[in-house]
Specification:
mainly alpha; two-stranded antiparallel sheet; 9 helices; 4 strands; 45% helix; globular
């Protein structure tokens, strides 16, 4: 597809978080728009440069493996122009994501235990039992709180009407959350005005909440529990997250 056709396609099919179809600023984008306009191109380029320097200094990177199986280290890309999700919209998304994560865990628990989903003929048995990821040793087992997946990486996209849809569910220890945490710290350093002008939801409690979640899932009470991170090592694509 040519660049012109691609732009035309995007104009007709993509949702713009800042402008409406009649080229008017959306309500939630007015503050950030005034900040960007006041800063001007030169200042924004300076912020972008500082952002990249901070990313390099913090060692935020990931590895991509080429066809010859050689690893290429890449710096984490961070766009300084943020996507803004108004609080009422996020509250609805958050409620749906919690419901989805619970449903996924209950589905896995049912597969290994009561198997009602097969009896009701909702999902073919062969689809599950012939999967290389079906673990026979787990049959008849149910973890505490039926929490099979402690971290759910649920990918969201937006359609042309601005509605949020789920692209896919990643449950086998998905990586990526560390980059989100680092993004926030970098943006606070290089673009502090965004956080003084907007009431940005805090994420600084994430690691504490994750730790407490993991402790709660320990089958037997332990006064001094130990948890470990299993990693293939420094050459793994997600090693930055592991560390």
């Amino acid at each position: 597809m040519s660049s012109k056709l691609w732009k035309d396609y995007n104009a007709k099919n993509a949702y713009d978080g800042y402008f409406t179809a009649d080229n008017k600023l959306r309500k939630h984008a007015k503050i950030i728009s005034s900040i960007l306009e006041r800063y001007g191109k030169k200042k924004l380029q300076e912020i972008e440069k500082n952002c990249q320097s901070t990313i390099s200094a913090r060692g935020i990177n990931f590895r991509v493996y080429a066809a010859n199986n050689r690893a290429e280290e890449k710096k984490w890309p961070l766009d300084i122009i943020p996507r803004i999700i108004p609080k009422p919209v996020w509250n609805k998304i958050s409620k749906g994501l919690k419901q989805r994560a619970r449903a996924l865990n209950l589905f896995i628990d049912d597969v290994y235990n009561q198997k009602k989903i097969f009896k009701d003929k909702i999902i073919p048995e062969d689809l599950i039992f012939k999967s290389p990821y079906y673990v026979k040793q787990c049959d008849g087992f149910s973890p505490k709180f039926k929490a099979w997946s402690n971290i759910s990486g649920i990918d969201l996209i937006r359609n042309k009407n601005g509605e949020y849809l789920v692209l896919e569910d990643n449950l086998r220890v998905p990586s990526g959350v560390s980059y989100m945490l680092e993004n926030r710290m970098v943006m606070r350093d290089v673009f502090p005005e965004l956080f003084t002008r907007y009431k940005v939801s805090s994420i600084h409690q994430y690691t504490n909440k994750l730790y407490n979640c993991m402790v709660e899932c320990i089958p037997k009470k332990n006064a001094n529990p130990h948890m470990v991170v299993l990693t293939p090592g420094i050459y793994n694509s997600a090693y930055f997250e592991h560390s």
